[in-house]
Amino acid sequence: MSQYIKDLMVEAKAKNPSEPEFHQAVEEVAESLDLVLERHPEYRAAKILERILEPERVIMFRVPWIDDQGMVQINRGFRIEMNSAIGPYKGGLRFHPSVNLGILKFLAFEQVFKNSLTTLPMGGGKGGSDFDPKGKSDNEVMRFCQSFMSELYRHIGPNTDIPAGDIGVGGREIGYLFGQYKRLKNEFTGILTGKALGWGGSLIRPEATGYGSVYFAAEMLGTKGQTFEGRVCLVSGSGNVAQYTVEKISALGGKVVTLSDSSGYIYDEAGITTEKLNFVMDLKNVRRGRINEYAEKYSTAVFTPGDPELDHNPLWTHKAECAFPSATQNEINGKDAQHLLDNGVYVVSEGANMPTTLDGVKVFLDAGILYGPGKAANAGGVAVSGLEMTQNSMRLPWTREEVDQRLQQIMKDIHKTCVDVAERFDTPGNYVNGANIGGFLKVADAMLDQGVV
Ligand code: NDP
Fold first, then answer.
1. 443 lies in some domain
2. How far apart are CA 248 and CA 226, in angstroms?
3. Is the Cβ–Cβ distance between 313 and 332 less than 8 Å?
4. Nearest alpha carbon, ligand 1 atom 27
5. 351 Cβ inside 6 Å of ligand 1
6. Are residues 132 and 278 in the same domain?
7. Which atom belonging to ligand 1 lies closest to the Cα atom of 98?
8. pLDDT truncated to tens, each residue of the chain (453 aa)?
9. Among 114, 126, 195, 375, the one annotated catalytic
10. Does the beta carbon of 240 sit less than 6 angstroms from any atom of ligand 1?
């Protein structure tokens, strides 16, 4: 790491205290950009990286609502408008008790590079709340969403900032948020993506992140002349991304043997078939139950409860060839990464955002495995959100096949960008450098063109 980047990191940590996830995301990108800044002193002179670290705007607000017992509840809402050099801010909303400013800043920062990689004209943003939808009634979720949007609506717009879903924000929440926006503005516009099909949604949007991460892995396997046929895969999480990851791996001939939630994980040696996946979808999307019910229903599966005392996650200790972390940040540490390698994994495609710690990333890079970082591998979700915006503007929906084909092409293009850029910067096969530098260059050039703003 150059002295310039070391100094930049010291300053970033001092200016953004108590935001370890943000520091981690910046450090990973800054290390890759060392290679670029050496060759392009104009970026350094214009302080492009320093400016990218600073959100264009941070909005923080009170979200008061009334629960089913008539009690007043108060949550905190956020929207980070990180960078609009190449298009309006775009990025999801996360509702989870762990949400804070640092987590949303890391997500918004990652989003800038990811959106640039998709080739679509989208800037980066992220938002959410420390509200926990788990255990709340539909009416409570609706009242919360209405209160959240009663402030957020002032700051967003179809040409300004277009939020979407993330952890804890699915079709139900997007519906309530959209309804309140429409009521306040008296406007029917494509202000959110991830909408239902009947009122402006795009086919394949729910599937896009999971499918995209599998398409990306298929491209990585393709560089070795291999396919998914017969490959055993570990998937974590059991939400939107995990579900469609399982569906696509199975469709391509692979076998998924794990799923998890925050209470623990299941290992099903027989594989998660279509029928079992349908059970998971009903369990998670309709009944909103816990993953241990899978093991109660299917005798081939074993449930292991989560143990916060452990220094590793046992989900990553099973024999497999591919791993798809699809739950949350920092779910693979250095020890987990080593366990994956020891058990035969040589393909890792990140459905989640920053699921691997810096130690873990180093283990993968040193081993030279096919490691697709989240900002490349999970970009399919925001890419189809971009396609949803296009369809909304045209007021014309595309068919399932058309959207899926575009998604596949975008994932191929992202993969090619990563491979080409990594080679151009003398680190062939390093998808981390490929994604960070590939995403950075377009944003940096736009910022140079637009002056000091
Ligand atoms: P969901 O809310 O649909 O599912 C999240 C899953 O992860 C649930 O199974 C949840 O379990 C589990 N999980 C969440 N937090 C933890 C935790 N601290 N420990 C263990 N398990 C946890 O979210 P998504 O599937 O949409 O998102 C998953 C990941 O993918 C996130 O990192 C998100 O940022 C990323 N992503 C999502 C995109 C999208 O289009 N939805 C796009 C790009 C990235 P539980 O129910 O018990 O909390």
1. no
2. 16
3. yes
4. 167
5. yes
6. no
7. 18
8. 899 999 999 999 999 999 999 999 999 999 999 989 999 999 999 999 999 999 999 999 999 999 999 999 999 999 999 999 999 999 999 999 999 999 999 999 999 999 999 999 999 999 999 999 999 999 999 999 999 999 999 999 999 999 999 999 999 999 999 999 999 999 999 999 999 999 999 999 999 999 999 999 999 999 999 999 999 999 999 999 999 999 999 999 999 999 999 999 999 999 999 999 999 999 999 999 999 999 999 999 999 999 999 999 999 999 999 999 999 999 999 999 999 999 999 999 999 999 999 999 999 999 999 999 999 999 999 999 999 999 999 999 999 999 999 999 999 999 999 999 999 999 999 999 999 999 999 999 999 999 999
9. 126
10. yes
Residue in the structure block whose two tokens are 């283990």: 363
Parent domain of 311: 208-372
The H or E element that residue 173 is part of is: helix 171-185
245 neighbors 214 (Cβ within 8 angstroms): yes
- Ligand 1 proximity of 133 Cβ (cutoff 6 Å): no
CATH number of the domain enclosing 344: 3.40.50.720
Residue of 262, 285, 290, 313 to test ligand 1 pocket, by largest number of atoms within 8 Å of CB:
262
Same domain? 347 vs 220: yes
Asked if residues 395 and 387 have their Cβ atoms less than 8 Å apart, the reply is no
| Any ligand 1 atom below 6 A from CB of 326 | yes
Entry field: residues in the chain: 453
Distance CA 224, CA 114 (A): 25
Active site annotation includes 412: no
Ligand 1, atom nearest to 379 Cα: 43
Measured from the CB, is residue 384 less than 6 Å from ligand 1?
A: no
149 and 34 inside one domain: yes
Question: What beta strand segments (E) does 231-369 contain?
Answer: 232-235, 255-256, 258-261, 264-268, 301-305, 322-324, 347-349
The atom number, within ligand 1, closest to the CA of 238 reads 9
Full-prediction pTM beyond 0.85?
Answer: yes
